[in-house]
Design goal:
The chain is mainly α. 69% of the residues lie in helices and 5% in strands. Helix 3 packs across helix 12 (253-282), helix 4 runs antiparallel to helix 11 (239-250) and helix 11 (239-250) packs antiparallel against helix 12 (253-282). The longest helix has 32 residues, at 63-94.
């Protein structure tokens, strides 16, 4: 091609395209509305005397409320531990080929998911009406130990039984869904290597099912933290009951409820952060790369550099 032809080709080319970003006026209108509403809320929080922030602060420092926090945390932790263990056992029974085990697990789940948690709490608190004494001995024979039901099942134990046994029914369905999400070939390969069913479930199936189990379990834990407020009906003093006793005495309902809500928000926020990192840990087996953590995003924002699009997954663990 001679110079004349090259010049004609060059002159025939169109100029570079200038891309114009698409405008989104609706988004900016939404941002403006949210900004106005946020400003109104902030103004109300600061200048509305009905919030009584001095009362909120005193309530948060009240010893009864602080003791109620520990009772709430204790109930949440113990109920979830018992519920998770019971849920795993019920899920294995539900998936068993033995019709007696499968039917028993189904009946348990049907009963505890089909009745309100509040009813179950009241039932366990009145268990002595059905069995005034609880004994240990030979079935239909002599007993070796006997004690009053009210002594063996105090208010805290009744609350724990109601919360934990109810949670076990929900966890059973969560664990069952997680187990069924694992490909059957995994179990078949483990059996071909000579592993027993119990070892296969413990070392092969459950670790892979955790990716599906963890998110709803985290939600159940947060729900359990809030459901502990229902034990007020059996007169167990936890966080909400402590606040209720205060505003029933002082008639300062809204400030006390705000103080209680702040503590609930703090505890659920800690649980949410923990759930995020646990989910991230178990996602390593499914994703080649992981998105940046909130800490990485904040560091990038403060440093003025863009956050990494993905963090490489390694056997040593995910990045902080």
């Amino acid at each position: 091609m001679n110079k004349t032809d090259q010049g004609s080709v060059t002159s025939g080319r169109s100029e570079a395209i200038k891309a114009v970003p698409v405008r989104h006026p609706g988004r900016w209108a939404g941002v403006a509305v949210i900004a106005v509403l946020a400003a109104m809320l902030l103004h109300a929080l600061i200048y509305n005397p009905a919030f009584m922030w001095d009362v909120v602060w005193r309530t948060m420092q009240d010893q009864t409320v602080l003791h109620g926090i520990w009772v709430t945390i204790e109930l949440t932790v113990l109920s979830m531990v018992i519920g998770v263990i019971g849920g795993v056992l019920l899920a294995v029974m539900r998936l068993s080929g033995n019709p007696v085990l499968s039917g028993t697990a189904w009946f348990y789940i049907w009963i505890f998911r089909g009745t309100p948690l509040l009813v179950q709490l009241v039932f366990w608190n009145n268990i002595g009406f059905l069995w005034p004494k609880l004994s240990i001995g030979i079935p239909f024979g002599p007993s070796f130990f006997s004690e009053s039901s009210n002594t063996l099942v105090p208010v805290f134990t009744a609350a724990l039984l109601g919360l934990a046994l109810n949670e076990a029914a929900y966890m059973a369905e969560i664990v069952r869904a997680g187990i069924q999400s694992v490909d059957e070939g995994q179990a078949e390969a483990a059996h071909a290597l000579g592993m027993s069913k119990a070892a296969t479930m413990r070392r092969i199936v459950l670790p892979q099912a955790m990716r599906v189990i963890i998110p709803p379990t985290g939600n159940e834990t947060i729900s359990m933290l809030k459901n502990t407020s229902l034990v007020q009906v059996i007169a167990l003093v936890e966080l909400f009951t402590a606040g209720h006793d205060i505003y029933a005495r002082t008639f300062q309902t809204v400030p006390v409820l705000i103080a209680v809500s702040i503590y609930y928000l703090l505890m659920t926020s800690v649980m949410t952060i923990g759930q995020y990192y646990i989910e991230r840990h178990y996602a390593r087996g499914a994703n080649r790369t992981l998105p940046p953590t909130p800490i990485q995003r904040v560091r990038a924002l403060l440093g003025g550099t863009p956050a990494p699009k993905a963090a490489p997954v390694s056997d040593e663990g995910s990045q902080a």
